[in-house]
Amino acid sequence: MELLYKSTRSENETVTASQAILKGLADDGGLFVPTEIPVLDIDMDTLAAMSYQQVAYEVMKRFFTDYTEEELKRCIEKAYDSKFDTDEIAPIVKADGAYYLELFHGATIAFKDMALSILPHLLTTAAKKNNVKNEIVILTATSGDTGKAALAGFADVEGTRIVVFYPKDGVSPIQEKQMVTQKGANTMVVGINGNFDDAQSGVKAMFNDKELEASMEKEGFQFSSANSINIGRLVPQIVYYVYAYAKLYANDEISKDEKINVVVPTGNFGNILAAYYAKNMGLPIDKLICASNDNKVLYDFFRTGSYDRNREFILTTSPSMDILISSNLERLIYRIAGSDATKNKELMSLLSGSGKYEITDSMKTELADFYGNYASEEETAAVIKQIYEDTNYVIDTHTAVAASVYKKYKAETKDETKAVIASTASPYKFARSVMDAIDNKYDSMGDFELIDELSRISGVEVPQAIEEIRDAKVLHDTVCEVDEMPAVVTKFLGM
Ligand SMILES: *Cc1c(COP(=O)(O)O)cnc(C)c1O
Which residues, renumbered to this chain, carry the PTM N6-(pyridoxal phosphate)lysine (predicted)? Predict the structure, then answer.
């Protein structure tokens, strides 16, 4: 049976999976959601024996029903190959009383690779299926990790171009170096004078600009999005929760149907929403633990039912979570409103107007699966040090936010349900903050000296992604104001 997608903001646009992936965002500014969540009607013993690629196919075929078996398998094969430094793709490490699901073994050593290594293939396949002749222009706002992962995924992919906007002073030095050294004639990287939310709003405004769309069309271009608002990113993220559960079961860490908790360091709410979808497919997940850093807008939301972005934007050592408008939350709001597009639209216009909204009591009761909390900068650093000293395992700052929140959760609830912590970045990507947390004696070391020291103390080899940028040349140096973003794009396209 064909699964269709509709917008979270109106009833009148129904599209196929491939069309939803092509468009990224619905015409009314809403996000595409499946009209129902498919059931994971496959035995756990069967899943337990499968490779990552096989699990990926089982999950994705239930969502992307207009792709043929051959098309989907080819996309999966091209995505999850030797770009990953382990055949397991997403290995699990047991440490300090939890299971760390390492989602950082791809080309750019952050979890964004899990979805962005397949999105270009899903997208170019979708273009063929829908007879799109235009060149696809990917516009992306990044808090650091999406940008590089998208660039790596789309570089030199025929029929595509990609422009990435990042907050000039809001990413780590390694993140910035990874992006500005990107090769590929179809790539452009731009720093903006503003924060991530400014970059994201600027990109959204371009998507909604009908005049720009018309002049692009004339020149043979159309926009699409690689941000986690694209359903083609969300679905591949469901895969690793199913895979992790199946591997824990295969390795006798859990019994059949035993419920697990999932802890996710959260920014744009994409990763944890994927876990929520996995749960709704029937995967035995109990609590979804949403971990925030000092930008704790989601913690306040889960506590009070009120979402309020009117607050100071705080730069932290987990920059990929420095976000005050979590775009994917809209998909959850829509669902807990009983798939009511009118109600959702009303709340989203409050958000873009006054910057806040409040959900009803009945919607609040639908949030019982979620637990939200946050970790301060001190708590984040402390947990990195503690886990390193107790177990020799080094985690990055984002994963540490989750680890810290998980400890708070256990202390508060006494819930001893086994937990999977989404480990979203390699510590190498945030080496400075990680090493500072472990010992302040590393203060005086240079960036790459620090990398070598991290390798020495952790016993983990320096990843290829880091080696690559040691001596790489800077190829992108454009910086612009937020209101100059459209001009930068049209210039790049030669319009
Ligand atoms: C993007 C990112 C996050 C946040 O994920 P969301 O899906 O935006 O909630 C957390 N950690 C790292 C390392 C990331 O790159």
Answer: 112
Over residues 329-334, mean pLDDT:
98
Which DSSP letter does residue 13 get? Answer: -
pLDDT digits (tens, 9 = 90+) for 422-470: 999 999 999 999 999 999 999 899 989 999 999 999 999 999 999 988 8
What amino acid positions are annotated as catalytic residues?
112
Residue 358 backbone phi and psi in degrees, to 5: -130, 135
Indicate the DSSP class of residue 16: -
Task: Tell me if 427 CB under 6 Å of ligand 1.
Answer: no
| Helix, strand, or coil (residue 359) | coil
104 CB under 6 A from ligand 1?
Answer: no
Confidence tier at 408 by pLDDT (50, 70, 90): very high
* Cβ 403 vs Cβ 98: under 8 Å: yes
151 CA distance to ligand 1 centroid (A)?
16
Q: Which two tokens stand for residue 494?
A: 């030669």
Structure confidence by residue, pLDDT tens digits, 58-81: 999 999 999 999 999 999 999 999
- H/E run at residue 44: helix 44-48
Give ∠ CA 422-406-382 in degrees, rounded to 5. Answer: 95
Sheet with 221-225, strands from edge to edge, namely: 221-225, 135-141, 160-167, 187-192, 478-480
Two structure tokens written together for 64:
């992307």
| 188 membership: H or E segment, kind and range | strand 187-192
Please tell me if the CB atom of residue 320 comes closer than 6 angstroms to any atom of ligand 1: yes
Strands 356-358 and 306-308: antiparallel
DSSP structure class, residue 484: G
Binding site membership of 145 for ligand 1 (Cβ less than 6 Å): yes
Is 289 within 8 Å of 263 (Cβ atoms)? Answer: yes
CATH number, domain 92-109+232-459, options 2.60.40.10, 3.40.630.100, 1.10.238.20, 3.40.50.1100? 3.40.50.1100
Q: Which atom of ligand 1 is nearest to the CA of 265?
A: 10
Q: 184-195 pLDDT, tens per residue?
A: 999 999 999 999
The predicted-structure confidence for 273-329, as pLDDT tens digits, reads as follows: 999 999 999 999 999 999 999 999 999 999 999 999 999 999 999 999 999 999 999
| Cα 7 from Cα 109, distance rounded (Å) | 32
